[in-house]
Amino acid sequence: MNTRVVLYVPDADEDVSGLARTSRSRGVHTLSVTRELLERAADTESPQGILAISDFPDLDVSVGDTSPLLLIADQIRDPGNLGTLIRSAHGAGAHAMLVTPGTVDPYSPKVVRAGMGSHFQLPIQVLDWSHPPTVLTSCTTYAAVANGNLRYDDVDWSSPTALIVGNETNGPSDAALGYAFDTVGIPLAVTLESLNAGVAGSVILFEAARQRRKG
């Protein structure tokens, strides 16, 4: 990751000052600015006192001898849901996230904030269903739907697998369902139609993580 410039408010707090010192010691152009200027530059209403401008990370999918676990965001429109999925995929040990056309920009400010730093460690790539990457073709792919054919905890997620989480309203696209080996669902204890995309994907991802730890 190449950080181009850091702006900070010198009287914000000691954590901000420490970050600014570290940034400057690493040769990053680091500027002390007024709070008014920082607020005008930032996307949030109440920035925390420091802002960095960086290039988008370009991370390669590297699985080595490990069984791949991939997450596919298929036309996810809500930035909070996509950021949650990125953060959960990273926390659950997924090797990459693939995003299909129609998905909100994974590097938009709201998605980056919801991802809480996971963008800089989890490879994120655009997926073209007609030319899937080699790492995906080696996986068994499941699509999460409200009434899936399989229970999510009956699937063997320890083998090379990919999980599709679809659009919040319409679910996975026809292209996604056509690519999937089968569908999976999360049984609910009450008459609730479904969970939101961020929660549902996270539940399944951490089931996969549980199985992989056990294995």
Plain-language structure description:
With 215 residues, this protein is an alpha/beta fold. The chain has seven helices and ten strands. It folds into two domains: 3-54, no CATH class; 69-214, Alpha/beta knot, CATH 3.40.1280. It has helices at 14-25, 35-41, 79-91, 109-115, 134-137, 174-179, 197-214; strands spanning 3-8, 29-32, 50-54, 69-74, 96-99, 124-126, 140-144, 150-151, 161-166, 182-185. Helix 3 (79-91) packs parallel to helix 4. The longest helix is centred in the last third of the chain and has 18 residues, at 197-214. The chain is elongated and about 55 Å long. The model has no long low-confidence stretch (mean pLDDT 93).
Main beta sheet strand tally, sense and closure:
7 strands, parallel
Q: What would you say the CATH architecture of the largest domain is?
A: 3-Layer(aba) Sandwich
Give the topology string: H per helix, E per strand. EHEHEEHEHEHEEEHEH
Average pLDDT score: 93
Shape: elongated
The CATH topology of the largest domain is given as: Alpha/beta knot
Total helical segments? 7
What amount of the residues lies in strands? 15-25%
> How many domains, in number, for the residues?
2
Backbone CA Rg? 19 Å
* Secondary-structure class: alpha/beta
CATH superfamily of the largest domain: SPOUT methyltransferase, trefoil knot domain
What is the helix fraction of residues, given as a range?
A: 25-40%
Give the CA-CA distance, first to last residue.
34 Å
**The CATH top-level class label of the largest domain:** Alpha Beta
Number of strands: 10
Low-pLDDT stretches are: none
User: What order do the strands of the largest sheet run in, or round the barrel if closed?
Assistant: 6-5-4-9-7-10-8
